[in-house]
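Figure 6 in text form: structure in, sequence out.
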């Protein structure tokens, strides 16, 4: 099969030809139709400090995908050949207290498809049947390929009750933009999104009903005043990992405000904890998706009218993956989707 690999422990990825995966008794084989490029994939491409410590080589990368099941292991349950599917990229161990209690997203033995295990940037990917999520007819392969990051957005946005609340989102990347659309769909009153990239802020304004704020030259409090907000934001969704954004969020929350952190900040980050204490702020870390409640909710949201297709800005043949990574590095792009159909050469 054709695939995209991290062939050696160095910068870059390679177009390669590898044997088709063999599945175990509890696995399925998915013929991949579309895949999404993720920030994690960019870290692996650049071979930064995190990637060097986490990713074995050689390995097929990629974890955002949609396709069709073409082979089913003898003990695989709940799946069938011909089923359209996406799937959870976190493969759990089932031995921990969290897993045994059904909190699979908290399993400390989690391994990642396309990170620690062979991935989905390929014509075929092997996936545990447990991880497979069937796709309804109303969710096409293109949207199916971005369900993983949409799940991050849904998990973060629905961490707190949003009905009638004023929401601040810091970071207008694809996940932040999708979280803004989810927040509006879930009943938020005002949604303000901040970033330092004007292209991404413009994209946010096209995809979701939000107030974009350029943190380089616009005052967040001016935007709040125009919206008639008097006390601050009820809910903060931090998607950037930028220290300045986290500080700004804490400074602009109401008393008793609630913050969900998905962005990954630097290892050392100065926070004025007196503000957190005296304002009685709640801060909650978010990781991945709840298995499988988040998947249920995001599919239900899509079937009931949530529209995030506009966050996809680049559609490329799989062989042109280098152009997709270039678009991500250039800034201003939304999601990049690769097509694994047709002649792959």
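Output sequence:
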């Amino acid at each position: 099969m054709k695939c995209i690999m991290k062939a050696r422990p160095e910068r870059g990825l390679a177009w390669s030809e590898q044997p088709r995966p063999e599945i175990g008794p509890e696995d399925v084989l998915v013929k991949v139709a579309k895949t999404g490029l993720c920030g994690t994939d960019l870290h692996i491409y650049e071979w930064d400090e995190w990637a060097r410590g986490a990713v074995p080589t050689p390995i097929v990368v990629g974890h955002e995908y949609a396709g069709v099941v073409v082979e089913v292991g003898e003990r695989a349950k709940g799946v069938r050949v011909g089923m359209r599917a996406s799937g959870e990229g976190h493969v759990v161990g089932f031995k921990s207290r969290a897993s045994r209690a059904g909190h699979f997203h908290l399993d400390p033995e989690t391994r990642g498809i396309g990170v620690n295990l062979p991935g989905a940037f390929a014509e075929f990917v092997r996936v545990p049947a447990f991880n497979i999520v069937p796709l309804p007819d109303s969710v096409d392969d293109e949207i199916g390929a971005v369900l993983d990051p949409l799940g991050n957005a849904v998990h973060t946005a629905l961490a707190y009750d949003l009905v009638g609340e004023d929401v601040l989102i810091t970071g207008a990347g694809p996940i932040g933009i999708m979280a803004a659309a989810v927040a509006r769909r879930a009943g938020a009153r005002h949604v303000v999104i901040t970033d330092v990239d004007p292209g991404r802020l413009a994209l946010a304004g096209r995809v979701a009903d939000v107030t974009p704020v350029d943190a380089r030259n616009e005052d967040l409090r001016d935007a709040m005043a125009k919206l008639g907000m008097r006390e601050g934001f009820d809910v903060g969704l931090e998607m950037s990992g930028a220290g300045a954004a986290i500080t700004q969020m804490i400074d602009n929350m109401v008393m008793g405000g609630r913050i969900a952190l998905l962005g990954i900040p630097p290892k050392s980050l100065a926070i004025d904890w007196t503000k957190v204490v005296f304002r009685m702020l709640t801060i909650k870390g978010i990781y991945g998706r709840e298995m499988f409640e988040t998947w249920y909710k995001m599919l239900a949201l899509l079937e009931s009218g949530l529209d995030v297709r506009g966050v996809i800005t680049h559609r490329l043949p799989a062989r042109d993956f280098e152009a997709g990574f270039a678009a991500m590095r250039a800034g201003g792009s939304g999601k990049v989707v690769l097509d694994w159909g047709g002649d792959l050469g």
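Caption detail: The mean pLDDT is 96.
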